[in-house]
Amino acid sequence: MSLDSLTSALPPYARDIRLNLGSVTTTSRLSEQRLWGTVVATALATRSAEVIAAVTAEARDRLTAEAFEAAKAANAVMAMNNVYYRSTHLIGDEAYTTLPAGLRMSVIGRPGVDRTDFELWCLAVSAVNGCGRCLESHERVLREGGLGRELVQEALRIAAVVNATAAVLESERALATL
């Protein structure tokens, strides 16, 4: 499966998603590695087999093996961190923020790719997973590292469109069984 087949699988009512999917993957100002790492990491975060298959097929020729592994690692570590940090935030007791997380996350310090790329992918996965605390943290690191708001916004747009693609396709699959 390719991105073209994924795009054509979107139903007519999701025309905006179809157009946006084409746009975010073809007109991005992100470097190819940042773009496709973001697409892979967010596709994995959606947990949609169809989206994951199409995106990874397209991205394998666009990412080095190290970058592909790092995008997978960004999704993995953020699947854990987003639950933990979102939960400590939502509890509303600031004392939890002073306690050590006690979770291994060494990949963040040594991701195997440029740290800014990895932080961007973590930010995008955090957007899919809805963790405000992680979004704030990764955005701050990116901005301090010199990445402009426009490029941060591009990663958020990619996350939104990839997530919407997965949601529509999964919804259509569920409706077809009724």
Automatic annotation (TrEMBL):
Reactions accelerated catalytically: N(6)-[(R)-dihydrolipoyl]-L-lysyl-[lipoyl-carrier protein] + a hydroperoxide = N(6)-[(R)-lipoyl]-L-lysyl-[lipoyl-carrier protein] + an alcohol + H2O
Annotated InterPro entries: AhpD (IPR004674), AhpD-like (IPR029032), AhpD_core (IPR004675), CMD-like (IPR003779)
Alphabetized UniProt keyword annotations: Antioxidant, Disulfide bond, Oxidoreductase, Peroxidase, Redox-active center
Origin: domain of life: Bacteria
Enzyme class: oxidoreductase
Oxidoreductase in keyword set: yes
Disulfide bonds: 131-134
EC number assigned by the record: 1.11.1.28
Positions of the catalytic residues: 131 (proton donor), 134 (cysteine sulfenic acid (-soh) intermediate)
Residue intervals of the Carboxymuconolactone decarboxylase-like domain: 99-175
Subunit comment: Homotrimer.
Function in brief: Antioxidant protein with alkyl hydroperoxidase activity. Required for the reduction of the AhpC active site cysteine residues and for the regeneration of the AhpC enzyme activity.
Xref: NCBIfam families: ahpD, ahpD_dom
Family: Belongs to the AhpD family.
The name this protein goes by in its record: Alkyl hydroperoxide reductase AhpD
Lineage per the UniProt record: Bacteria, Bacillati, Actinomycetota, Actinomycetes, Streptosporangiales
Gene symbol of the encoding locus: ahpD
